[in-house]
Design goal:
This protein is mainly beta. Helices cover about 10% and strands about 35% of the residues.
């Protein structure tokens, strides 16, 4: 009986370790809201810190949008959305959506510091996916990273969820809809801009994006974004 019990416990531990975990991801700047719609696509960005990895090591990674039912999966690249990857050389966009470790457009790299941590910008462009990017859903930034000894694959997500809203230009559609905020700025292209509803920026921002142009054409973007 003892041998059977030990085997069962070991099986549970292995299953849990293969699922997505939030223990290694800290939300630094994560927006409260995101848009939706297959023909009104926008990038959804965040500033995250990843800890607990091998020190001074290169990792391959990609970013996806995940919902609660994705978090228990034991497969790489769970979720949906087209990765918007940011590194010191600029932006890279996975317009095709499909992801493998050898899909160059979908995979980028980051390097951990001597403590095994990395902080950077992570994002994706939502699509017409009807399971995840639906009004009133809560979406998580999911990261699949691979590197270090083995290499080891880490399936992670940020526990700060982003609520999905629909676009509307009327004032009586409730709290599940939003309108666009557009403006001109003196900031440099590719700098990040956050919108807050408090003057000191203590709470999470309502939205987060970057100043154009990032040099990438995103198909099926919202008309106001393209214009």
């Amino acid at each position: 009986m003892k041998k059977i019990t030990i085997f069962m416990l070991l099986t549970v531990v292995l299953q849990l370790s293969a699922q997505y975990s939030s223990s290694k991801v800290q939300g630094i700047i994560v927006p409260k809201y995101m848009g939706s719609g297959g023909t009104t696509r926008l990038p959804v960005m965040s500033r995250l810190r990843i800890v607990g990895l091998d020190p001074s090591t290169m990792y391959q990674y990609t970013t996806r949008g995940m919902v609660a039912t994705d978090l228990g999966l034991s497969t790489d690249f769970a979720g949906a959305g087209n990765a918007m990857l940011v590194d010191t050389s600029g932006f890279k966009y996975n317009s095709a959506g499909s992801v493998t470790w050898t899909t160059n457009a979908a995979i980028d790299t980051f390097y951990t510091d001597k403590t095994g941590a990395y902080e950077g910008w992570f994002g994706f462009v939502y699509t017409a996916n009807a399971t995840r990017f639906v009004i009133a859903k809560h979406v998580y930034f999911g990261i699949t990273a691979r590197g270090g000894t083995g290499p080891t694959t880490h399936r992670m997500y940020c526990s700060d969820s982003v609520r999905v809203l629909g676009f509307s230009n009327t004032s009586n559609t409730g709290d599940s809809f939003c309108t666009a905020l557009w403006g001109k700025s003196m900031t440099k292209a590719q700098n990040f801009v956050a919108t807050y509803d408090d003057v000191v920026g203590i709470d999470r921002p309502l939205s987060l994006t970057y100043a154009e142009s990032e040099g990438i054409a995103v198909a099926n973007s919202a008309a106001f974004y393209v214009d």
